[in-house]
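Handout for the seminar on molecular recognition.
Each group receives one record of this type.
Step one: identify the two inputs.
Step two: read the structure output and locate the region that could contact iron/sulfur cluster.
Step three: write two sentences on what you found, then compare them with the reference statements printed after the record.
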Amino acid sequence: MKFGCLDRPAEESPAARMQLLVSGVGGQGVLFVSRLLAEAAIGRSLSVVTSEIHGMAQRGGTVVSHLKVGGFPSPLIREGHADGLIVLREENLRPHGRFLSTSGWAVVNSASAAGEGCAFPVHVVDAEGIAREAGYPRGANLVLLGFLLARLGSLEDGGRFFCTPADLRVALDRRFGKNPRALEESLGALASGIRHGKG
Amino acid sequence: MKNRTLMLGNEAIALALIENGCRVAASYPGTPASEILSSVARLGKELGVPMYAEWAVNEKVAFEVAYTAAVTGLRAAVAMKQVGLNVASDPLMSAAYSGVRGGFLVVSADDPGPHSSQTEQDSRLMAMLAKVPVLDPDSPAQARELVAAGFDLSERFAVPVMIRPTTRVCHACQDILPGGVLPHDAKAEFVKEPSRWAATPVFRNRLHKELCDKLARIAEWGPTAPVLWNPEASGTRAVVASGVAAAHAREVLEGLGLWEKVPFYQVVQPFPLHASFVNHVLEWYDELLVLEEPAAVIEMQLLDRRRVRGKATCAVPEAGELLPETVERVIAGFAGTAPAVPVAQGPQPPGRRPTLCAGCPHRASFYAIRRAAPGGIYPSDIGCYTLGLNLGAVDTVLCMGAAIGQAAGFHHAYRLSGRAVDIVATIGDSTFYHAGLPGLIDATVQGARFVLVILDNSMAAMTGFQPTPASGAGAAGEPTGVVDMEALVRACGVRFCKVGLPSRFEEFVGLLKEALAWSHENGVAVVIAREPCVMAPGASGKRPPAAKPAVTDACTGCRHCLTQFECPAIGFDEAAGRASIDATLCTGCGVCRHVCPVGAIRGGEGEEPR
Ligand code: SF4
Ligand code: SF4
């Protein structure tokens, strides 16, 4: 008896492959961040898989989302294999650092000097403070993403991130297109994050 | 042309149900399966497909409703989590014998880990017990394909088919290209055949033989046969995997450079395992490593124990989720290589534990219960309110509806021993309807004495705010009939049934004390704590903005409000050495004012502490 053989999916450019961990606590918008990035990946015609936490943990417990861009079969990132760690709550920085590969980086939302003594590069941004100051108190996650994209630069421009701010704007437009105020606020928050990332 | 869209595994399953002509779908919410039915209802509406989708009172009823549609020739599906299948196991076992006419899928989502369940049980073992075929997807995209294959299989062999996704499929998101809805114009037509649909034991024997014969043929059916991913691999030791473990294994085999060396078979139908596959792999290979979760279902069907490595040989852990790190370690060991990246062993930090939301009425109820019945026994149940554990007001959680049966059990055991104790059980409204009613009838009939607090926030909150039988709204928001909770409680033989508002704290404590006194003399007393969930969609919009309390100079910094009450809006200002309230999180419920032993929390609206 012969057994069927599945076609292997076309290899995607290894440069566009990226494994990111988004970490926070229930209610902070971990799923929003990972889904928005996943939508940006789809916008670039990259295949994407994420793994989310639902259920009881969403009531204020630790919530982690795995995001893998570019042809990965498994929805989970192995420890020691993540390219980046996006930390919405500072207390998660150290426990989730073990997911990073040797060339991995972290970005953390914190008003203090987080990440001192970490074995990996940590980009710190007071996303909540910046969001409040810019008048988008609910936009901290987008400030963080804008900051991150500006800091790392996109692969397209010789940087390290799989997508550009323009990709995120398209994804936001698709999401909030019917709600002009929400769209304006989120684009504004993203822009102020980008400004701080460049500064 | 349609675009690729990001879809949750459960949405992909729902999409596939609709694309493949499912006409009737029913479910009871439970993580990780909850989004299947809500997505069916939403997508059905969006795509204009005439169909019936219901949130049933429990999984057994959901099964019976959907199954019967398949008996009439329509395509139908029932969705639930693995412990929900326990509730529906009675009709499942029987339906396997009587079979179906239209395609019928039982989607039972397992939760290895477990992340959000009481057990790590394997629905595939239930499929074996019932003798129905089961398909095991590795991703949202494959779940969608297997729904199509499952309907085909079900109709071809006139048998219910189980689809068994796990949490990592249900709650994975993937880019999916929606297709079109296939034309299906079946009309319901019940063909009477009492020897099948109402079979007595004589006929059951015949049906059982028929089922065994179907299974033997399903174990030869081509479309669900195992797949060899890398025919070019030449090794004499092969890996066999199913579900998400197969996805991990593919990635690990590539990462370890073993793709050309270790033949890799993916099983999509773990039961019945294809007979020729079993013969082939046992003949061809010196050793087989089986990766699957949570139980050893494929492994136990590979009968040559000397050559099979898996859970039975302790090569693969028997409990807990099979994480990709573990798959990497196991495969590397099997193939005699080293893992790519050495991973720090040792326990992972526990992380932040979940807690009831700021302003949650359950918090007030639990704190009131502890005040009214200090030192009591507090049986509880399954839902958000299980988090009453953190407040020391939940002592037992067994299964859906058990709060009531256990309360009665405590009463009878203590009474026999001549010991008096306060028993206050808590159960959510949705759980009460699901499995609490028989327990309550039993308790009143048998003269048990305890207080039952029904935490009625008028929805199934933890699983995503699904309606209850008292909501008057269906899966797609359509109006439905309603039941009257108080009338139902009284009809169960309860003579003390009062409704209270937990945020009117002192009054509510008084009501609980009254119920306790009554129950000690008379029987079961029911208190319905009726207050809406603060997280319900639209809830904050409905509420007038409330004035919020603040911590005054009287605060001694004792932290009682943090450790014993745990409202997420209350923090501690270390510099000032006292508690503080975060006004952005605080809903202004005002209950914390009654919690502070020195009355340091003041202001806000309504009743001030006495
Ligand atoms: S507010 Fe009351 S309970 Fe909380 S720390 Fe201060 S004194 Fe203690
Ligand atoms: S009033 Fe008190 S208990 Fe209620 S939400 Fe605000 S801080 Fe929490």
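Reference statements: Residues B 358-359, 548-549, 567, 569-570, 581, 586-592 surround iron/sulfur cluster (ligand 2) (CB under 6 Å). Chain B touches chain A through 62 residues (CB under 8 Å).
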